[in-house]
Design brief:
By secondary structure, the chain is an all-alpha fold. The protein has helices at about 5-15, 20-45, 55-65, 75-100, 125-140, 140-150, 155-165, 165-185, and strands at about 110, 125. It has a two-stranded antiparallel ribbon. The two termini are about 30 Å apart.
């Protein structure tokens, strides 16, 4: 994902955590491309004519990350937090738009069957966020894996690194979460556990 070694980002994240404000300035160019890639991935799934542009999404995520009080561990941890933050920004934007429109024009995501844990047709991002929160209530690991893989655009290997699991376990967890989310989003009762 990054052209520079992960340990460079890790080193700068730790220096930043230690109070080195200059490390943050050196970190931005390293992670900006990765944040842009995450944003492009997330925005591809948004409806045409979405008012939030990719660059604005990157900047909003970056501002929230800079202001966050996080004990940064490494690059994988940074990308995991960035993925969650991106989800929150998109959900906040969708909620604000829904409030403004009084329920009309719900934001829909076109989900690619191969790369994401949910099958098309489009899914309302607020419904997806609520379903992920519901999944997290009884299986936080599956919810986190879906969030990293879908919202973060992380590969199976990158997701596995971020959560400390094998890629095979990530694959299995995503398949189970996909089935649960599909059932929940289609109005089913959902299995007792995923």
């Amino acid at each position: 994902m990054s052209e520079l070694p992960a340990h460079t980002a890790t080193f700068l994240l730790r220096a930043w955590r230690g109070g080195d404000r200059a490390a943050l300035d050196r970190l931005l160019p390293i992670v900006y491309d990765e944040l842009s890639s995450l944003a492009r991935h997330a925005m591809r799934a948004e409806r045409a004519g979405h008012t939030l542009q990719t660059r604005a999404l990157v900047h909003e995520v970056y501002v929230r990350l800079v202001d966050a009080n996080v004990d940064w561990q490494d690059r994988a941890h940074f990308m995991a937090v960035a993925s969650r933050t991106m989800r929150r920004v998109l959900v906040d934007h969708a909620r604000a738009r829904r409030r403004h429109k009084r329920g009309g024009d719900a934001v829909h995501l076109e989900l690619d069957d191969v790369a994401v844990p949910i099958q098309p047709p489009s899914v309302d991002i607020l419904a997806l966020s609520d379903a992920l929160d519901e999944l997290a209530a009884f299986d936080a690991r599956k919810s986190e894996i879906v969030e990293l893989h879908y919202f973060g655009g992380l590969s199976y290997d990158e997701t596995a690194e971020a959560v400390g699991l094998s890629a095979a376990t990530v694959d299995r967890e995503l398949r189970l979460a996909k089935a649960w989310l599909r059932d929940t989003l289609s109005g089913g009762a959902g299995p007792a556990s995923a």
